[in-house]
């Protein structure tokens, strides 16, 4: 499902997958395990990120509804800012870091 043993075996036999420490079937086993667990890790990370985003969206919607119905003002812990301003700052910081890492990686 997350890794293809036949494809890995073909790569090892063709010499496209090489490692000084392992060879033959042992290299296929190690490569398969690494690919499978990397796939699991990416899947779990993606699902967790998605769930966090949905939870955050629900939280924000409830906070805004509460503000509209009760007249309660959403306060920030920082003076002269609102939670929306802080959220925008956080998104900008994350975007800047991700794009910087992607640009640095692409240049290599």
TrEMBL record:
Record-annotated membrane-spanning stretches: 35-59
Keywords: Membrane, Transmembrane, Transmembrane helix
Top-level division of the source organism's lineage: Archaea
Name of this protein: Transmembrane protein
Biological classification of the source: Archaea, Methanobacteriati, Methanobacteriota, Stenosarchaea group, Halobacteria
